Amino acid sequence: MPMDQAELSTDQVLRRDIPWETYMTTKLISGTGLQLLRRYDKKQENYKAQLLDDDGPAYIRVFVSILRDIFKEETVEYVLALVDEMLTANPKRARLFHDKSLADEDTYEPFLRLLWKGNWFVQEKSCKILSLIVSGRPKSQDSAIASGESNSKKEITTINDVLKGLVEWLCAQLKNPSHPSRGIPTAVNCLATLLKEPVVRSSFVQADGVKLLVPLISPASTQQSIQLLYETCLCVWLLSFYEPAVEYLATSRSLPRLIEVVKGSTKEKVVRVVILTLRNLLHKGTFGAQMVDLGMPQLVQSLKAHAWSDEVRKCFFP
Known about the structure:
Blueprint: H1 3-6, H2 10-14, H3 20-25, H4 31-40, H5 45-69, H6 73-89, H7 109-117, H8 120-135, H9 140-146, H10 159-175, H11 183-194, H12 198-206, H13 210-213, H14 223-239, H15 243-251, H16 254-264, H17 268-281, H18 287-293, H19 296-304, H20 310-316
Helix pairs in contact: 4-5, 5-6, 6-8, 7-8, 7-10, 8-10, 8-11, 10-11, 10-12, 11-14, 14-17, 16-17, 17-20
């Protein structure tokens, strides 16, 4: 992939002028869609916020229809940048994608498809947007899917399709990242959100994803690598609540690695999440005996002597 595409920023993309009128002439967007885009595009943040408050679902419909019907890369990147900008300014706007007026729209499908089709900018934005939309869904949507209800005769991408597709893409990034420095951090960052979902834990273990996280559990020094380590350990903590994942962790080198991280880390958030993980694992299988062999009791005593915040101390003194 050309590096200039890989290094595109949202700001750079949003400087483009997109010929929306041309798309209306060729019937790729409707007259109403054109009006909404003219009203919204290139306007100030507070003005756009007001438009989204007044008529948010209508804008979502336009953005999704463009991503579904238009394949020109510059336009796809531009609309993804608009959606990313909108959700970054206020992540609660993810709820707009689940508005009842959009029940007949397959709002997930374009983002799921673009995960595999686009350059790095397109993939990264699609992943981020999908993760936010999934996390913002009303839980009633899950029960409707479980009971097989549908508001439409046409096939709509279900939440399970989305979660499985996302896990597949995230595992692919951990194995063979599309971007040399951002592929793995992007995947781990999304997993740290998505692994709160039981169905994601199950898909991730089935996809053999746990073994892809274990090598990332190692002491870190730079700010970037500390954040990646923290999010990796957060993923392992979330997986420590799920029995099949615990069984895999028991047969991997995860425990010595987690203990090495505690020994070598001064970052409170890292120490806290690792200690919480070890507490979860303590009474499962042979983890307790392994912890004794690895010198965990002595380590805890020495950690207690440090001047940690109350939040971290609570992990040692539950």
